[in-house]
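Figure 6 in text form: structure in, sequence out.
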């Protein structure tokens, strides 16, 4: 379908669907904004005179803002089209990043982080654009391949942020984000054509359409599964910087390097989604992914609580969490945007709100509860509870799909 669309619109600039690389960079840039500075969180707090708990808001406030933003991104994109929303949000992201670079107080930095949440459009609409172009099963595979490729960006961004931050200070990772954001804006302008023609429907009506989405039982299963499954990862993001530097005692650059291990698993999980989702079905892939996440969290809990804490015990089992999420999330997201294809953008925004919003709450809790004395036990309790709930919902969805097929 994509190639036909392109050939039919050669004479109409900005009306052809984007190349896959553009979708990869769109989604990857917003994730980089989330984690590139993580190894430098202690340095940010020290420089701006903020407590560790307040410094944590540089991550959690961004996550919460992204969650809220996605509630509006979907309806706006369904009303005005994907392209104008993405161009506007990318421009705001650049302004916000400049505020972060020149922030002289923690309050100013947090304000910039709130504005950076417009990056939510890139993640939500990359999924919606794929659904615009492909049917349900193919969309799951395409989302799997896109997220597999985009996972390379968050895999290397904490490593880059840690090394660059040690050399030039905590503002340097935000300078990198500005350069990436500028390149992405140009790429969207020149490559991303409209895949969803604007619909003359009042924006209030589009927002009200959330009500009809919420009355769809299946969408709740997909959205809650993705929210709980990714909760283990977000809890880890909230707690790992403190555990790595204070409990285990590694430097920011080493901590950033180890963050790549999670993305390695995520890449492999997305590869499995791309290869097997059409063959096995999205519900089956969700339950297999949920089980693997539970195994990874349980292994990390066992190692960290029974042996002397080591950086490998903190990160290596998280490879399995990455694999499980790489299998679960593309399929759950594809299922959610397929319940009502006419509201794919709104469904994607709603899913992002629940997934990122839930992640922000869990990350905040993990950051607040962890101390050197308890050696990160609350972190693993939160991770295990989230992963277990995700696996249970996936199992319910799987057996419901089998009963409906009979």
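Output sequence:
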């Amino acid at each position: 379908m994509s190639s036909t669309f392109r050939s039919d619109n050669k004479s109409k600039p900005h009306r052809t669907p984007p190349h896959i690389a553009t979708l990869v960079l769109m989604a990857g840039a917003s994730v980089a904004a989330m984690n590139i500075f993580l190894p430098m969180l202690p340095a940010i707090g020290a420089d701006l005179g903020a407590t560790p708990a307040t410094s944590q808001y540089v991550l959690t406030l961004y996550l919460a803002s992204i969650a809220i933003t996605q509630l509006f991104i979907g309806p706006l994109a369904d009303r005005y089209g994907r392209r104008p929303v993405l161009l506007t949000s990318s421009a705001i992201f650049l302004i916000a990043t400049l505020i972060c670079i020149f922030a002289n107080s923690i309050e100013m930095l947090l304000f910039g982080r709130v504005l950076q949440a417009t990056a939510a459009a890139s993640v939500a609409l990359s999924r919606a654009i794929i659904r615009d172009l492909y049917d349900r099963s193919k969309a799951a595979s395409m989302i799997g391949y896109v997220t597999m490729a985009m996972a390379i960006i968050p895999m290397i961004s904490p490593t880059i942020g840690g090394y660059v931050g040690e050399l030039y200070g905590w503002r340097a990772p935000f300078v990198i984000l500005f350069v990436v954001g500028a390149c992405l804006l140009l790429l969207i302008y020149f490559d991303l054509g409209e895949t969803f023609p604007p619909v003359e429907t009042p924006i209030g009506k589009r927002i009200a359409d959330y009500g009809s989405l919420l009355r769809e039982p299946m969408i709740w299963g997909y959205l809650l599964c993705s929210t709980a499954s990714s909760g283990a990862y977000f809890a880890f993001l909230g707690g790992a910087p403190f555990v790595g530097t204070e409990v285990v005692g590694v430097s920011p650059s080493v901590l950033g390097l180890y963050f790549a291990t999670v993305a390695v698993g995520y890449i492999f999980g997305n590869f499995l989604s791309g290869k097997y989702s059409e063959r096995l079905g999205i519900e089956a892939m969700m339950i297999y992914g949920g089980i693997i996440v539970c195994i990874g969290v349980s292994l990390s809990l066992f190692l960290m609580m029974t042996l002397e804490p080591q950086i490998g015990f903190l990160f290596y089992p998280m490879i399995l969490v990455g694999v499980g999420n790489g299998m679960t999330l593309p399929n759950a997201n594809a299922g959610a945007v397929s319940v009502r294809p006419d509201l794919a953008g709104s469904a994607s925004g709603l899913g992002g709100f629940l997934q990122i919003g839930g992640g922000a709450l869990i990350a905040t809790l993990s950051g607040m509860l962890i101390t050197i004395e308890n050696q990160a036990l609350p972190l693993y309790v939160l991770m295990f509870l989230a992963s277990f709930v995700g696996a249970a919902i996936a199992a319910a969805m799987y057996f419901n799909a089998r009963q409906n097929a009979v």
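Caption detail: Residues 217-248 form the longest helix (32 residues).
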